[in-house]
């Protein structure tokens, strides 16, 4: 089976060394084909932080990568850079921010850049981005796992996090469910969860879209008493290919990630 490693919110510049070591050990054992970064790769979009993230990614040794920026990947205090070149550091380290995508046997991933240089924290998705991602899902092969990646969440478990929901999330979910998306990956709130969303296609037929919300991968900025957290998605090509989402946490005080949840699609 192929393996997708989903990382979010590592906030390089605030990383915990023991979490970095533990995640590298997990990746060496699982050998992911694809690494997906769902934003907030750095703490303050500084060159040294992007360089640390780039070195970490190289150490993962994954043949494919898809990364989108988070709000922390845009300079906050450098007003000129924020206005004129908000994504310069991200592009140097990880490439284009123009809604990247990749297609592999058994897997299609479409990234959506939900950050805006004029916003401090909140994200939004435009109608053009919604349509573009839906088209990529429709163009995917029937036996591919269809994944869309955003930074801010499209669903939250806690009422206090509703303020962090992606602006335009309802329209996006409706369009993407109608197109046939299987999984939406996100980050931003540092609170991991895997939750099936019951939606309906335009013809009224039921659709299940899995909302996969990552915690922070390696930062000490953990939340809710949960340590650092990532996901592994195992996928298999073919008409009867299996798809499995696993949540892995690093319990406080421990040195190895542990699998704490497993969901078969």
Automatic annotation (TrEMBL):
InterPro entries: Calcineurin-like_PHP, CNP_phosphodiesterase-III, Metallo-depent_PP-like. One of its GO terms (molecular function) is metal ion binding. The keyword Metal-binding applies. It comes from the Bacteria. It holds the Pfam family Metallophos. Keywords: Exonuclease, Hydrolase, Iron, Metal-binding, Nuclease. Residues 4-191 form the Calcineurin-like phosphoesterase domain. Belongs to the cyclic nucleotide phosphodiesterase class-III family. This is DNA repair exonuclease. It comes from Aquabacterium olei.
């Amino acid at each position: 089976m192929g393996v997708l490693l989903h990382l979010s919110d590592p906030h390089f510049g605030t990383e915990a060394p023991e979490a970095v070591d533990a995640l590298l050990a997990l990746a060496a054992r699982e050998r992911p084909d694809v690494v997906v970064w769902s934003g907030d790769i750095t703490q303050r979009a500084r060159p040294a932080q992007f360089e640390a993230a780039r070195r970490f990614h190289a150490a993962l040794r994954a043949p494919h990568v898809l990364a989108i920026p988070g709000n922390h990947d845009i300079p906050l205090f450098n007003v000129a850079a924020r206005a004129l070149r908000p994504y310069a550091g991200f592009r140097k380290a990880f490439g284009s921010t123009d809604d990247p995508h990749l297609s592999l046997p058994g897997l299609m991933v479409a990234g959506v850049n939900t950050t805006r240089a004029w916003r401090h924290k909140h994200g939004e998705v435009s109608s053009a981005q919604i349509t573009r991602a839906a088209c990529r899902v429709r163009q995917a092969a029937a036996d591919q796992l269809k994944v869309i990646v955003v930074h801010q969440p499209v669903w939250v478990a806690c009422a206090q996090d509703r303020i962090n929901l992606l602006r335009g999330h309802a329209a996006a979910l409706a369009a993407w469910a109608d197109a046939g998306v299987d999984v939406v990956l996100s980050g931003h709130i540092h609170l991991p969860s895997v939750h099936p969303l019951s939606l309906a296609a335009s013809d009224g037929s039921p659709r299940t879209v899995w909302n996969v919300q990552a915690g922070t991968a390696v930062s000490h900025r953990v939340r809710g008493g949960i340590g650092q957290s990532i996901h592994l998605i195992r996928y298999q090509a073919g008409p009867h290919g299996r798809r499995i989402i696993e949540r892995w946490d690093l319990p406080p005080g421990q040195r190895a990630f542990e699998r704490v949840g497993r969901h078969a699609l």
